[in-house]
Amino acid sequence: MIRVMLAEDQNLVRGALAALLGLEEDLEIVAEAADGDEAVALAGRVRPDVALLDIEMPGADGLTAAARIRAAVPGCHVMILTTFGRPGYLRRAMEAGASAFLIKDGPAEQLAAAIRRVVAGERVIDPALAAAALSAGPNPLSQRERDVLVAGSGGATIADIATRLHLSEGTVRNYLSSAITKVGVRNRIEAAQTAERNGWL
Amino acid sequence: MIRVMLAEDQNLVRGALAALLGLEEDLEIVAEAADGDEAVALAGRVRPDVALLDIEMPGADGLTAAARIRAAVPGCHVMILTTFGRPGYLRRAMEAGASAFLIKDGPAEQLAAAIRRVVAGERVIDPALAAAALSAGPNPLSQRERDVLVAGSGGATIADIATRLHLSEGTVRNYLSSAITKVGVRNRIEAAQTAERNGWL
DNA sequence: CGATCACCCTGACATAAGTCACATGCCCGG
DNA sequence: CCGGGCATGTGACTTATGTCAGGGTGATCG
Fold it and tell me: Which residues does strand D reach (CB under 7 angstroms)?
């Protein structure tokens, strides 16, 4: 019997996934979490064979939770299940020690199969996604460039960003400018969006 | 036996929902669609008792599909199932003749119950959401104001928007300015985001 | 019929955003 | 221990945005 933990913030989707996996004879849902912190805590207590983590969750996101669970529960295989097949996400998932990276667009029939393969020691990654991650190259942005992009993504003005980050306005402008240049777009809005899309933030 | 059609673009979620509903004795999944257009076509052929539609789908979105299905299959109850409980979405769903508006955050156990209530002729809406939709008031933006906001949401410059909409740059600036004023924010980025959040686009 | 409103445009203006050149200091790898 | 990259800053500059004050049209409605 494979003992599975489920972490997904949308109740209905989580329940539906539990129903889907419950149909399999050799799988057992032993815990369900609604956010990253709860997932880490539960994994420590329940020690499941597999932790299936969504990325987009309140609190600690799935990637952070993955790293923590790997550190705290060595025998637990971590699988990432996400809506967005962003190259940067895949990269970070691998760095966090994940055994699988699945997107919610994928075929429902193969989820259980993926879990079994992971338990058998395999790694499960969509080949197309792996290629995209490799061809996209690593994150070109420096820490500070990422900071100003996220701080400004909500429509904040340069002055706002400078205040929030305790920087001078000129510095913020310079970071934004270099980020825009690196990403190869025309303004910070496009920069924030493409960076987001690639999982660079 | 209640005959249910499922429309949801994420394969895995759709399969999981099917598994969840398949556990109920009195429910039967008679069709599954991956986008709005397919949902309309299938509903016309299969004539289900209930159509469970996601909003965020490629092609025709769930709200558009809801209106079309209501027109083409009068006996079919349409239920909206969405990630985002945006007031404008709820309003549009009601105008499209939907019988229920559920968010994916909600409790999984109540989905089947909601379907039964809808078939019995009830309307199922989250009370908190209904209150929010009423207090938020109707969409304050004019058609053109919405147009410029969506055209500019990808980081496009004023000139880009003007070209795409066959308008003069000054006109675009004016629409953006009035949209910003109406929404009560400081720039078009915030305007686009809050409008999006409220389901005004 | 006249008021009102969405729609479209122009021109002028103030401010915000983005670019460039050039500093300083820190730390890390060759 | 020196070069290069990153973090941080300044000042000057160009361009993009947002605001204001107008002036036209056509449709709708009391």
Answer: A 142-145, 167-171, 173-175, 187; B 157-159, 170, 173-174, 176-177, 180-181, 186-189
User: In terms of C-beta density within 10 A (0-12 exposed, 13-18 middle, 19 or more buried), how is residue A116 classed?
Assistant: middle
Which residues of chain A have a CB within 8 Å of the CB of B184? Answer: none
Contacts 24+ apart (CB under 8 A), A130-133: A130/A90, A132/A85, A132/A87, A133/A87, A133/A88, A133/A90, A133/A91
CA quadruple A12, A13, A14, A19: dihedral positive or negative? positive
Q: Any chain B CB within 8 A of the CB of A11?
A: yes
For residue range A110-130, what is the model confidence (pLDDT) as tens digits? 999 999 999 999 999 988 888
Q: Is pLDDT above 80 for B138?
A: no
**Is-contact B40 B60, C-beta < 8 A?**
yes
Q: What angle do CA A55, B58, B85 make, to 5 degrees?
A: 60
| Shortest CA to C1' contact from A187: nucleotide | C18
Closest by alpha carbon to A32, among A69, A61, A7, A4? A7
Please answer whether residues A189 and B155 qualify as being in contact, where contact means their C-beta atoms are separated by less than 8 angstroms.
yes
Phi and psi torsions of A84, nearest 5°? -110, 120
pLDDT in tens, A38-76: 999 999 999 999 999 999 999 899 999 999 999 999 999
Question: Is the pLDDT assigned to residue B55 strictly greater than 90?
Answer: yes
* Distance, Å, A167 CA → D8 C1': 8
Confidence (pTM) = 0.89
Residues 6+ apart with CB under 8 A from A114: A79, A100, A102, A124
- Residue B134 pLDDT grade (very low, low, confident, very high; cuts 50, 70, 90): confident
B156–chain A nearest CA distance, Å? 8
What Å value separates CA B171 and C1' D10? 37
Q: pLDDT (tens digit, 9 = 90+) per residue, A170-198?
A: 999 999 999 999 888 999 999 999 999 88
Predicted pLDDT at A21: 96
As a whole number, mean pLDDT of residues B136-143 equals 82
| B187 with A105: Cβ contact below 8 A | no
Q: Is B159 on the interface with A (CB under 8 A)?
A: no
